[in-house]
Design a protein that fits this description.
heterodimer; A: mainly alpha; MetI-like fold; two-stranded antiparallel ribbon; 80% helix; globular; B: alpha+beta; Copper Amine Oxidase, Chain A, domain 1; Dipeptide-binding Protein, domain 1; D-Maltodextrin-Binding Protein, domain 2; five-stranded antiparallel β-sheet; 29% helix
Amino acid sequence: MPGLYLVSRIGRYLAAFLLIVTLNFFLARFMPGDPLIHLLGEESYNYLYVHEPDTLEGVKAQYGLDKPLPVQYCLYLAGCLRGDFGWSYQYGQPVFAVIAFRLKWTLVLLLPATVISVLLGACLGALSGWEKGRRVDLILTPLFLFFYTLPTYCFGMLLILFFAFSLDLFPLGGMVSGNISGIRRLVNILWHLCLPLIVLVVHNTAYNYLIMRNAVVQVKTEEYVLTALAKGLKERQVLFGHVFKNALPPLVTVVALDFGFLLAGALLVEIVFSWQGMGTLIYESVISRDYPLLQGCFLILAICVMLANFLADVICAFLDPRIKEGESNA
Amino acid sequence: MKRCKKFLSILLVVAVAAGLVLSGPPVHSQAGATSPDAGQRGLIAADIPSEHGVTIHIDGELLACDVPPLIEEGRTLVPLRALFNNIGAQVEWEEETRTVTAVKGDLTVRVTVGSSLAHVSDKPVALDVPAKIVNGRTLIPVRFVSESLGARVTWDGAKRLVSVATAAFIAKESEKIAGEKPTEELAEKPATTPSGGGGAPLPQKELVLGTLSPLDPLNLFSSDGAWERICSTGFSHLHLVRFDPDLNVIPCVAERWEVSPDGKSIKFFLNKNVKWHDGQEVTAEDVKFTFEYKLKHLVGTDMCTAEPFFKDAAVVDKYTVVLNLKEPVVMMLLKELAIGYLIPKHIWENVNEPLKYTDKRNMIGCGPYIFEDYDRAAQTATFRANHNYFQGRPSVETVKIKYFKNFDHVVLALKKGEIDAVSDYSMPVPGSYAPALASDKNINLGETPGLQVPAYLGFSFKNHPTKEKVFREAVSYAINYENIVRSICGKYGEVPGKGLIPPSMPGFYPSVSKLEYNPQKARQLLASLNIKEPVYVLPQTRPGKEEIMVRVAEMICGQLKEVGIDARIDQEVIGNYSKWKEKAWKERDFSILVGHMTVFGVLGDAGGSYLIDYPGGYGTCADQKYVEAYEKVIYAKDNSEMKEGVKEMQYYHARELPGIALAWDTVLYPFRTDKFDGWIMQRGLGPVCYHTLFNLKQK
């Protein structure tokens, strides 16, 4: 029963979501440092701290930071249900508006990067796994191992130095040049997208490649492969018709798991290329103790990761009917 | 590779060709461009001087001078006396203050040797380079001549000829050609303070500044944001008063002010022709509103630092407003006012939560630049010159400000020419980038003595043994300053003086001797005290600064141990800034404190609040002599009184050592010199300042 399978999955996700919401609230509160120092600026904070503690308490109350934690928690939960994640101290805007802007630009970078790197990684990995020990494998595996170990920050800087600074083919960073609109703006965005995309694609392809390669190496020893070959199918037909589909589930699962990490973990790439994504948003809100923003980010990330996992579940069920049968039989 | 080379060579050829086509000779070298009718006026003489010499013509006549003009750092310096005498002005030299005064009619020009600020009829005018003495004659930048006399100055590079046409001469000449064509250029009022090059057409190139403070959100009062930092220097928003390049407080929106005899109220007389960008007039009501608004909505934020001293404001008439103070802290308030900007009443009176206000109307000010647009995705803000600005229009039409996430990116953008300078209030580029920047001949590192004290020791006057002067002296001899300077400032620092206050602070007194490392002397001094108990060192553990402060504290402990003091770091404060604040500022229970004095901490009261036990202070020194010197600084009524106080504080620091600076730093504010000329360095704060906006010349 695929329906029942999905319902039980959704139930689990909801429970996980509630747990995340709760953890999310308390994590932010238990970090060291006083959020007021970032609201007031250091000199004013210091002045008030020493000379006018009452005013400081007043400001604290103004931001709702004086209430007991359970009360703050209930207010937070109620807000979440209404879709109101609060107001970002740092940005002076509703948390939702800040995140929506950043999420959009993160996806502009991340979706193509994920799609390209999954396709590339899966195809090259499959090829390499199939031809293990032969020329393709001997060239590609060390190459991708190298790219996988190369830090994205370093790789990004090298690309900038060579292609943007020395050759002047690409911009040094940013997402778009100012004061242009229409189709020119779109082209300009693509131009800005090139280098960070290359960094992410190369790094993620390397990772996907290694997973796919190992999966294919395992699958190709199965008896049905031998049967297919014995039937007289060509190697490529066996690889992409039979082996590929069966080696895909581990990759799909890993990509889904990784999606959340990528969403927040492109931090270094974002910093190098001055890209305004979720990674830097989270980093900045941690630094400035912007609790509402931080909580909003984590929540959105949790939702994204869960969505991606849910999608992976569906895809895996589609790819491998045993999964949904096994679940419903259990 | 071959292809790459080919591509590069094509790129190079294109770049060179474009450079030739686009750059052309400097604007001021094109006599024909700046003054199309110069030829008719007969300003250009035919005589060609020697290879290095420079000739001056005044109203077409050769100027005879005993000291020849010279070119230094691309600026032409001319002898003041010869030039002013020639136009019939009386010139006097005052040895004591090293000031030249030239008087003609009701025009008085005062220039002090070594200072980059001159006064024209008591109005301050910034100089490109300070006046200097050569062979007993004072030389001033020729550009200043145009600014002080309303004269037109042109430079012919080929003939190395400076031609000065005085206002009277221009008027006479323009009468001759009147009727032929109306010269709008001549009719335009030359800018007063500081001038934007009279009536010369505005350069079309845009000035692009990089900032590391986020432009998002578009909120004027976000203290970490770029808007506030940009406006602190007087950009789209202005202040009642402002800082000149030497950090003296001078008039701005207020043309003058009067201080009451008790120092508890200041009457500001506003300039009558200042307008908000939406066309409404700036009045005393706006000033009063600004203060009341900040008190109502922004108490406790960086935007309301004048609040502790401020009592109330009263409007006398449309252009006169009185600010009443709780204490007679005139200069302190003025310094706060030089950073806090005015806001229009008609816009902000309807905004109840200023920190949540992100409308474009945030940016309606009365400054020299008008906000035009902010592209959020491109993180770029565009400003246009305010042609109706009451002190004359600024000298560049378009300024763009672009946000960068990291220093690497900023430095590359600067090297590539994408930006012309880094604009951030007191956020210099770290010295580690200097070699990369210095290799580019079109980049000036913008070195200026820092206004902060990157590390200092504060002694407790409550606890033994630090309350003994002999002990503090011994500590001062036990420290190897060279080592500390090298470890926290690298190449960009120097061994500090005993006066503690860094050289860029107005009132800095250079005669106070430097600190000295002499462990033997330290041991001798300590011998008389016989100290056995451990001395605790309290490093300031503010996140972000903790690492360096703990490192310095470790070095200090090591050096004190060498002379026999059992110095130990107070482990309780490590990783716990709250504990540090409790011990250092609330209980004030420590022996030696290692901390950092911020730019405004120094500029505000010469760093006194870090050491003194006084309302508003954080220290332990309650010595009446120190309190007197400190009060002289905070109760000063004008720049010179304040400088006197600062001088006294330095004497006290040197004599009694309530604190010791561990290093003075040189900070870097790099800028490009290939697109624009005329950057003016503001002491300790770099070249992106109010004065630069009026002085830039397109190359």
